[in-house]
Amino acid sequence: MKSLKTILIILSFLFIGKTYAQQPNVLYILTDDHRYDAVRSFNKMLTGNEMSELGYVESPQVDKLTQMGTTFINTYCQAQGCAPSRASMHYGRYPFRSGIYEFEYHNNIAEHTQPTLPEQMAKLGYQTFHVGKLGVRIKTLKDGKSKPYPIYQTDIDFRTLARQGLSEWGSDWIREVNGQKLKTPMQNVSFFITPDGKREYLSSEMESMGLQKKGTAEATMKKYDLLRFKKGKQKAYYENGMIVGGVSPREAGKTRDGYYTSVFQDYIINGDKPFSVGELTYDGINTSKPVFCHIGYDFPHTPVLPPSDYRKRFKKHTYKVPELTNDEYETMAKQMKVQVDKNFTDKFSDKDKQIMIQDYFAFCAYGDKLIGDAVNTFIEYSEAQKQEWMIIYVHGDHGWKLNEHGAISKFTPWRIDSHNPIVVVSSDKKKYPAGKVVREFTEFVDVAPTALSAAGAKLNNAEYNYLDGLDLAKVANGSAPVRDYVIGESHAVTGPRAFIRTKDYVFSMKTRPSKKRGENIEWAVNANYSDLDPALYDMRKDPNETNNVAFNAEYKAIAKAMKEKLINIVLGDNRVEINWEKWGTGTEVYKSNFAPGAHDYKLKL
Is the dihedral of CA 76, 78, 83, 89 positive or negative? Predict the structure, then answer.
């Protein structure tokens, strides 16, 4: 019989294994449509100059993060659209493994699906919290119908805040106006919220119905100096078109993104007690457990509305506006022309182009301040609790064009849309040394395994075999495989298109004639090269990716090798597609696996 002392020692070890002291608090911050050149320290790492090629930027808080932690400067996103990019991070899977290629609703019932990152963190003993934009359009099914499926234990989204008046802007279904209930709800009506909580709707329909004074929408547009952009050849009116410039109706800190930070701070500060969000009440952080927090900022996504003091400062700067040449446009791949034609900015005046760029970078500077405030609160809390901590800062779910290639918006494999560095800061400086810059390729699918590994997950266990990414701690210390390339695929706007990028080249191609899931999956294997609509750029000679050499004889061998590698990976190495159906009710999985193991990180050119 074991002695009492021995039993107590065994029990103590069992207890230690189940405590949370060694599990770090994790803060995962993500911004939206954020260009890599909006951060001085990134520019310095990449070009030797702090400022963007376009002109003045400021980012003291993210710059501070890079000094405190490790920057993975050559990180690329898997899909250049909000929803598929965010899904890749929350699932730790490539689009061709998750089956999420654009903005489709999907479910957690299909046989290939796996738990999301916050669900896995909860299994490891974490409390989970999210505020702001999520963009993971997951549902569950009950009696064949899709139902909401919250993946965070506490989730305070942007619509909730807007409905509470804790925002300067919103877009929602309107069921009641000035106490008058509508017979039929009005869908996706945009509105501004004044400092005193009054809504100013941008809707001529409301005016025609007598629900708002005539001329209000037009007056609101002028009041906030809105610069509208309408896709294609259509004109932008006061109630439609992307807002790519303007001024916020509210002061700094009282905007939508400002409330993301302050709500997060209230959650952290109110340990073991409730706190208010407008008229709603939520439980504050449980100080006895580790926490996994996610802040999904909207900035600098449209509507681009920097607070007036930031806007005023950036008006002093004149920016270099990228120009689209006839030669670039003529050699551009057809699918990429689709994006450019829909978001063509040369119809803007020179003055409007300046406004668009000034307001974008002003908005970035404002958001930088909010990130700093959130980070400081998180670190102060963790250290006061004597808990380890880690911050994963992902600089944008993808990038954003400011007249590069003649367009705005995203959705293409061009670098300006896909290059998004990650910074990891930790109380464990051995794992993530201060000021370290890692130049090996990293990807968005690395976010999930990085957080899970820090939380204590044994990534070699079978339950994590579905993860496509690498633990960034191992990338930082040199024990992870070194990638010769990064890959991705997106179907939004351009149509189905995949890319593979090495240090010197980026190759992209059309993967099928239509978006219909499960149909012609392997079409590209035998398609004529020209039908693939290829694009190849040589970054050694053409760092801005303006000269498509996919049909240049000099690059024939390079294009062939990259094409074959890309096809084998995204189409032949455990690919899945699902017809998710309109509201995410579909569960039939289509598979293609003619080149298993093709994704081995190796590509010698």
Answer: negative
**267 φ, ψ to 5°?**
-60, -45
Length of the chain in terms of residues written: 605
Torsion-angle region of 380 (φ positive above 0: left; ψ -120 to 50: alpha; else: beta): alpha
Residue 257 DSSP code: H
Residue 69, Ramachandran bin (φ over 0: left; ψ between -120 and 50: alpha; else beta): beta
Residue 186: strand, helix, or coil:
strand
Q: What residues form DSSP beta bridges with 198?
A: none
Query: What's the whole-number average pLDDT of the chain?
Result: 94
Residue with tokens 């633990």: 471
pTM: 0.95
Tens of pLDDT along 24-64?
Answer: 999 999 999 999 999 999 999 999 999 999 999 999 999 99
Helices (H), 455-603: 472-477, 523-526, 556-566
> Could you say which DSSP state residue 419 is in?
B
Calculate ∠ Cα 536-574-565, nearest 5°. 25
| Backbone angles phi and psi of 404, in degrees to 5 | -60, 135
Q: Which residue, 350, 345, 362, 352, is CA-closest to 55? A: 362
- Of 397, 339, 344, 368, the C-alpha closest to 77 is 397
Per-residue pLDDT, averaged over 187-195, amounts to 91
pLDDT per residue as tens digits for the range 7-25: 333 333 333 333 334 899 9
With b meaning 16 or more CB within 10 Å and e meaning fewer, what string describes 538-571?
beeeeeebbbbbbeeeebeebbebbbebbbbbbb
Phi, psi of 230 (to 5 degrees): -110, 135
What's the Cα-to-Cα distance from 217 to each of 5, 193, 225, 235, rounded to whole Å?
A: 77, 13, 12, 16
Q: Which residues have a Cβ under 8 Å from the Cβ of 334 and sit 6 or more positions away?
A: 533
> Distance between CA 599 and CA 593 in Å, rounded?
12
CA distance 201 to 219: 11
Cα–Cα nearest to 63, from 75, 76, 80, 51: 51
Quickly count: other Cβ atoms within 10 Å of residue 260's Cβ: 29
What's the distance, Cα to Cα, between the start and end of the chain in Å? 66
CA distance 40 to 56: 9
